[in-house]
Design brief:
Largest sheet: 7 strands, parallel
Strand content: 5-15%
Helix content: 25-40%
Bound molecules: NADP nicotinamide-adenine-dinucleotide phosphate
Distance between the termini: 30 Å
Low-confidence stretches: none
CATH superfamily of the largest domain: NAD(P)-binding Rossmann-like Domain
GO molecular function, one term: hydroxypyruvate reductase [NAD(P)H] activity
EC number: 1.1.1.26
Radius of gyration: 22 Å
Keywords: Oxidoreductase
Number of domains: 2
Structural class: alpha/beta
Pfam family, one: 2-Hacid_dh
Mean pLDDT: 98
CATH topology of the largest domain: Rossmann fold
Number of helices: 11
Organism: Gloeothece verrucosa (strain PCC 7822)
Number of strands: 12
Length: 326
């Protein structure tokens, strides 16, 4: 009997695909750039399983073109690039990789937070530019974390991990989310629930950790920036489109808030002629939240295990549309 065919849309960390080796005929897209949509459309007609990334548009047309497609496995926790409804309509399970990237992404959030608060990137550039003449009382002043208020928007896995890391910094931590957590969880995490607008008004640092959806698209735009303190810093390691880039540019340019740090942008990659890149009070990293050797291997292995389960007609260990099984 011939093995099921799968298409993997990029080269993954070595060993990540091990669980699939004896179970499937594997084609791996060899290029550095993701396959074009037209190529995906062609490939999907010949496969039983698709292992994809957040850079692939998996829309209704693509899903319906894959007549033999049995499973879609995404190597990411977010799945805003996949039309889940279309997959569910066809009873195709969609897998993701929650949990294994939580700590890495929370670590990066804190790295960006501290870089923005203490102007680390500007300082480093200042030294390399030969501008360091002497110790100066008012050179490159940032903001203290001790005593400040950290506002977490979206207290999911990563939001919680960010909150846990705050405990050593003597911060007040407030959060808003769709659902308020129990008093026990709030106490254990040392967080206080507030309404979204109040969080925007009271926070010195605001960090975004919601999933991207219709409700959270441009959740932060002109009206929300207008509520923030002039000294506020915004961190986004969730998804670029949660922040309106035009509003962010106007706000940072006019000094209406102090600074921002983004690991994700709208669009990605950010175009080199984007006015955002001209701003000194903005730090941007290229979507590296989960980019550690250990985490990426765990994500690849988890995605491979999800795919394998789908090929074997077993429930996916991590499935975003489990309703297909009922
Ligand atoms: P998660 O556990 O599902 O948490 C997402 C949280 O967002 C949920 O707790 C949910 O709150 C909240 N939320 C959803 N819609 C909301 C809304 N309209 N208003 C307020 N809160 C809302 O997911 P996670 O594992 O923490 O990951 C969060 C996101 O981070 C992912 O979706 C992904 O896009 C992004 N991410 C980025 C990187 C990176 O490389 N930069 C890496 C990993 C993940 P409730 O629980 O209250 O409903």
């Amino acid at each position: 009997m011939s093995l099921p065919k799968i298409f993997v849309t990029r080269q993954l960390p070595e060993r990540g695909l091990n669980p699939l080796l004896s179970h499937a005929e594997i084609e791996i897209w060899p290029e550095r750039q993701p396959p074009a949509y037209e190529i995906l459309l062609e490939k999907v007609q010949q496969i039983d399983g698709l292992l994809c990334l957040l850079t692939d548009r998996i829309d209704e047309q693509l899903i319906n073109t894959g007549k033999s497609l049995k499973v879609i496995s995404q190597m990411a926790v977010g799945y805003d690039n996949i039309d889940i409804k279309a997959a569910t309509n066809r009873k195709i399970p969609v897998g993701n990789t929650p949990g294994v990237l939580t700590d890495a992404t929370a670590d990066l959030t804190w790295a960006l937070l501290m870089c923005a608060a203490r102007r680390i990137i500007e300082s480093e550039q200042y030294v390399r530019a030969g501008s360091w003449q002497t110790w100066e009382p008012t050179l490159l002043l940032g903001t203290d974390l001790s005593g400040a208020t950290l506002g977490i928007v979206g207290l999911g896995r990563i939001g919680e991990a960010v909150a846990r890391r705050a405990s050593g910094f003597n911060l007040r931590v407030i959060y808003s989310s769709r659902h308020r957590r129990s008093k026990e969880i709030e106490a254990a995490l040392g967080v206080e629930y507030v309404e979204f607008n109040r969080l925007l008004q009271e926070s010195d640092i605001i960090t975004l950790h919601t999933a991207l959806s219709k409700e959270t698209h441009h959740l932060i735009s002109y009206a929300q920036f207008a509520l923030m303190k002039r000294s506020a810093i915004l961190i986004n390691t969730a998804r670029g489109a949660i922040v309106d880039p035009q509003a962010l540019y106007q706000t940072l340019k006019s000094g209406q808030i102090a600074g921002a740090a983004l690991d994700v942008t709208e669009p990605e990659p950010i175009p080199l002629d984007s006015p955002l890149l001209s701003l000194k009070n903005l730090i941007i990293t290229p979507h590296i939240g989960s980019a550690s050797y250990q985490t990426r291997l765990k994500m690849a292995t988890m995605a491979a295990n999800n795919l394998l389960a789908g090929l074997l007609n077993q429930p996916l260990p991590y499935c975003v549309n489990p309703e297909i099984y009922s």
